[in-house]
Amino acid sequence: MLAIAAGIPAQQPGTTKDWGAYQGGPDSIHYSRLTQIDRTNVQTLKVAWTFDTGEVSKSKREFESNPLIIHGVLYGLSPSVKVFALDAATGKQLWTFDPAAGTKEIGSTRNRGVTYWSDASGKDSRIFVTFRQYLYAIEAKTGKLVESFGDKGRVDLRIGLRHEGEGLFVTMSTPGVIYKDMLICGSMIAEQLPAFPGDIRAFDVRTGKIRWQFHTIPHPGEFGYETWPKDAWRYSGAANDWAGLSLDRKRGIAYVPLGSAAPDFYGGDRVGNNLFANSLVALDANTGKRIWHYQFVHHDIWDRDLNAPPALVTIKRNGKVIDAVAQTTKTGHVFVFDRVTGKPLFPIEEKPYPSSTIPGEITSPTQPLPIAPPAFARQTMTERDITNRTPEAHAAVLRQFQSVVSNGQFTPQTLQGTVLFPGSDGGQEWGGPSFDPETGLLYTNANEMAWIVKIAKRPPPSASNSGKSLYTANCSGCHNANLSGNPPDVPALTRLDQRLTNREVVTLIRGGNGRMPAFPQLNALEMNAIAEYVLKGNDNIVSATSSASQQRYMLGSSTRFLDPDGYPAITPPWGTLTAIDLNKGTFAWQIPLGEYPELAAKGLKNTGSENYGGGVVTAGGLLFIGATNYDKKFRAFDKATGKLLWETTLPFAGNATPAIYEVNGKEYVVIAAGGGKSVHDISGGEYVAFALP
Fold first, then answer.
1. Residue 499: its pLDDT value, please?
2. In sequence order, what are the beta bridge partners of 70?
3. Which terminus of the chain has fewer Cβ atoms in its 10 Å neighbourhood, N or C?
4. DSSP structure class, residue 652
5. Which long-range contacts (CB under 8 A, 24 or more apart) does 99-108 make?
6. What residue spans define the domains of the chain?
7. CA distance 18 to 619
8. Residue in 333, 553, 536 with CA at minimum distance from that of residue 457
């Protein structure tokens, strides 16, 4: 099969009038062939229309939607996962669908878009969206449920997964891809045990039935089973694809980027390399059978999920034109492989790293790093990298830096604290790269933020538990022992009694929401004890009837490394935008991306900032990108040089990937602006479309 597939020409890259799939198309290259807006006129762009979902919130609710535009209709999401259709030329609403209507359910705060399917006649066209644990099918023309799909219009994603009856958390934060009459997708699940396995599944678009299922944690007799403990497939979880996937339609190959196994910072109960966690897996899209794979992190204890779909690119190497797949990573690297065989197109070296000092933790002796292209984010934080923003900030950061371990990539976690750099959000983040098939340039934005991770000894099991001990064992890894959280991603729980009741906290613990998983292993008394502790500080004693974890260690805390004023502990740039020549394996250019307005007003400009959401490159010579957390800018750069050609200020930060389309001969650029990543701002939910006058 592979020999035949190798002779098939690549699918036409990029989009024209429509933006028909997440990130533009199944190749995940964020490229538009439209040219009406170009280098010569981009400075005259004006707002063409806006659409406000009306969902302004003081909570840090993320709004990451990349809308679809098909036949003049825009399909998008609100922050609470209401689905709507708009006239793409005017922004006028055509219909809306609320999956939470008639329920008390709260939508996930992280959902990046919908998937569109139509039959050959065009009479049956559907929008697929995930709300909590359900996959819905909606009529694209009316917004009504397709009652023949699944159980009255929806499929329970828990069905068919190991532990399906145990009430564990599962949803989809990123839409899947359509192949023939199947929707191929991954899932977002808990990153601590107990957790579902991250199986990749193909659902029949008409009936909702599972057509095939790939085990990311291999069962006995399957390839990779020997890279886990004997019974790990029964109890381990995650190794899931929350980032989305890419598809070579003509070859019928799906490229699936997988995350770490659970728990993601301690692996004492999963000794081995843990295939297929942290791997790019090429699957036969017809059957779900593995064709090839590559693992980027062996036995991950650093939360190094593959956090963006790979770009399906065509490049020139050694005089040959090669269809390739380029995978960017949280560590700030890009790995490039032959799309069919999986052979690396640039050298990769297995480098030695020290062993863990945590009892029971057996780390891999080596980890792979590419020789080229060079890393697009810094790899090690030393004293030379400590902030010089003010003398006071430098002194405070230096004291904290000297108390932790900082030896670069793949330094094992410690009890005293280890610098993770790039941090848990990258490097590359979920927006993914864009690729220009005209030039072979890959564009990627990146975060340059250090984090500090600490491992803690898990409290020993006892006949009874207190609210504090239950909180420590189940919640402190994310929200910290002092309830401070890691804003904006993980909220602080201090003064929670001013926002939530005991009943509401128990409901969240039982069912989870957004990034927070459910905790079905806790009984009602234990959930209530945790609620009493976080709301009132009461340390009530309850009987320990839930199953205690056998793990000796756990995540103690994982937080951004900041100075006392809340700015990054490292020197700028704090965010970058890089153009990488994949034909040569070298940089074409690199610039800071974003800034802090209050620092810029004091003369500290062009620092870069944390950024979330990808860019879009066009045949008109432009690279459009929002992404920056604090300045709320939407920018257009000259794709050849990185020169800034145009910028505007959005109502909220554009932490989403834009879409480019054409209606009635007019080209538009639209982006979702909702913020949610800044601790200093409220969250919103607006779509803003731009066009030439």
1. 77
2. 73
3. C
4. S
5. 99/129, 99/131, 99/134, 99/136, 99/154, 100/131, 105/131, 105/132, 106/80, 106/513, 107/79, 107/80, 107/81, 107/82, 107/131, 107/132, 108/81, 108/132, 108/171, 108/173, 108/188, 108/513, 108/514
6. 2-379+421-448+573-670, 459-548
7. 15
8. 553
The Cα 31–Cα 436 span in angstroms is: 7
User: How many Å apart are CA 397 and CA 452, to the nearest integer?
Assistant: 12
Q: How many helical (H) and strand (E) elements, i.e. helices and strands, does the chain have?
A: 8, 43
Whether domain 2-379+421-448+573-670 has CATH 2.140.10.10:
yes
- The model's pLDDT over 166-177, given as tens digits with 9 standing for 90+, comes to 888 899 999 999
Nearest C-alpha neighbor of 84 from the set 34, 132, 21, 127:
127
What's the rounded Cα separation, in Å, for the pair 520 and 117? 35
Closest CA to 474 of 544, 417, 424: 544
Paired with 644 in beta bridges are 637
Is the separation of the CB atoms in 245 and 27 below 8 Å? no
The DSSP line for 490-539 is B---TTGGGT--HHHHHHHHHH-BTTBPP-TTS-HHHHHHHHHHHHH---
- CB-CB contact of 348 with 335 (8 Å): yes
Amino acid at 656: A
Query: How many other CB atoms are there within 10 angstroms of residue 498's CB atom?
Result: 7
CA–CA separation, 157 vs 170, rounded Å?
A: 7
- CB atoms < 10 A from the CB of 524, how many? 12
Nearest by Cα to 245 from 203, 297, 307: 307
The C-alpha atoms of residue 488 and residue 655 are separated, in whole angstroms, by 13
Q: In sequence order, what DSSP letters do the residues of 20-48 get, joined into one string?
A: -SGGGSTT---EE---SS-TTTGGG-EEE
- The pLDDT of residue 463 is 62
Gap between the Cα atoms of 473 and 457, Å rounded: 10
Nearest C-alpha neighbor of 232 from the set 166, 277, 278, 201: 277
Query: In the block, which residue shows the tokens 């599972």?
Result: 210
Burial 632-668 (b: 16+ CB within 10 A, else e): bbbbbbebbebeebbebebbbbbbbbbbbbbbeeebb
Cα distance between residue 680 and residue 596, in whole Å: 11
**Longest Cα–Cα distance in the chain:** 73
φ, ψ at 479 (rounded to 5°): -90, -5
d(C-alpha 191, C-alpha 318), whole Å: 42
542-to-27, 163, 458, 505 alpha-carbon distances in Å: 53, 26, 18, 18
| CATH level 2 (architecture), domain 459-548 | Orthogonal Bundle (1.10)
CB-based contacts of 497: which residues, under 8 Å, 6+ apart?
Answer: 535, 536
Q: What is the pLDDT of residues 324-373, one digit of tens each?
A: 999 999 999 999 999 999 999 999 999 999 999 999 999 999 999 999 99
- Between the alpha carbon of residue 91 and those of residues 48, 128, 564, the distances in Å are 9, 21, 43
Tokens of 664: 């009635």
Dist CA 101 CA 81 (whole Å):
11
Tens of pLDDT, residue by residue over 376-393, are 999 999 999 999 999 999
Q: Contact 448/573 with Cβ under 8 angstroms?
A: yes
pLDDT reported for residue 2: 37
| Angle, in degrees to the nearest 10, between helices 467-474 and 524-536 | 100
Quote the tokens at residue 559. 């937080």
Strand order across the beta sheet in which 115-118 lies: 115-118, 125-131, 134-139, 154-156
Q: Measuring CA to CA, which residue among 164, 133, 360 is closest to residue 267?
A: 360
